[in-house]
Design goal:
alpha/beta; Spore Coat Polysaccharide Biosynthesis Protein SpsA, Chain A; 11 helices; 36% helix
């Protein structure tokens, strides 16, 4: 049995379709707290996080939401074959049984690649500068008054500019690592991640990454890469240039990170050898999804 963790922000019809495609495995979903969960989310065959986090792009809130998903999945007591993190805009390229076969033939392997931050020219700036990517005003007020959204963005930018001359001190005892936000780990490794995050050392790591940029591409990789599970992972790869797509684990990700895949991309998708494609949606990608459903 696999546990799929889904970080969703919108498009309940795409999430519903994704969840259906992941059956008969257990699926856990976190929906951004800023998203209204009306009737369109009803009947999705997944377990939803009730204590939702307001999620912001490149913010630590992404880590917080993922930790809530891990906690929910592990609290069930099932010894999962793997715990796989997806976004609501992901979709299987191959039948899920082929993913299960991959995990069976690599019993203890964690699919989490990463590079050493200090081997690149630009990655250190993601942690050596102070960022304010999460909301600093009550999100309900910002949602109710759109003008506050512009005020908040401007205020965050001012704070980041003001903090830029002040270098951040590196956290001792950890080698900072960076990789793709989407991964698949063993039950044992997932337990280690959650236990570390709850420990005194993990509390320091959380405070450190709270004001980093895109901490979800670093926090989990740093925990795994600085543990004994590094030896049981796809692990460290050489830094070959900008782009987290280079460290993709099971996903086909466009280098732009912004492209929405459609049926015109089918040849590239098939040739990738990957198990998931990101990004797709219920409106732009419906023809592609119909084709993939036939596999």
């Amino acid at each position: 049995m696999i546990a799929f963790l889904i970080l969703a922000h919108t498009d309940p019809e795409q999430v519903r379709r994704l969840v259906d495609r992941l059956q008969p495995h257990d699926v856990y979903v976190h929906v951004d707290a800023k998203t209204e969960m009306g009737g369109s989310w009803d009947g999705i065959a997944a377990t939803f996080v009730s204590d939702r986090t307001a999620v912001y792009w490149a913010g630590f809130s992404q880590v917080d939401a993922t930790l809530k998903l891990l906690d929910l999945a592990l609290s069930k007591g099932t010894e999962y074959q793997r715990i796989v993190l997806l976004s609501g805009a992901c979709y299987p390229i191959k039948p899920i049984r082929e993913l299960s076969e991959l995990f069976e033939t690599s019993e203890h392997l964690n699919f989490m690649k990463y590079v050493a931050v200090d081997e690149s020219g630009h990655l250190p700036t993601l942690i050596d500068r102070t960022y304010f990517r999460d909301g600093i005003m009550p999100w309900r007020a910002v949602k109710r008054l759109p003008l506050l959204r512009h005020v908040e963005r401007a205020l965050r930018k001012v704070l980041e500019i003001a903090a830029r001359p002040i270098p951040r001190k590196r956290l001792e005892g950890w080698e900072p690592l960076h990789g793709s936000a989407y991964w698949a780990v063993t039950h044992e490794c997932a337990t280690h991640i959650l236990e570390t995050a709850r420990s005194a050392a993990g509390a320091k790591l959380k405070r450190y990454y709270k004001h980093a940029f895109a901490s979800d591409e670093q926090f989990f990789h740093t925990i795994v890469g600085n543990s004994r599970y590094a030896e049981e992972s796809t692990g460290r790869i050489p830094y070959l240039g900008r782009g987290t797509y280079r460290a993709a684990n099971l996903h086909l990700v466009d280098p732009s990170l912004a492209k929405w895949f459609t049926e015109t991309d089918l040849r590239e998708i098939r040739a990738s050898g990957m198990y998931f494609v990101r990004k797709v949606s219920s409106d732009r990608s419906v023809a592609l999804l119909n084709i993939l459903d036939q596999t």
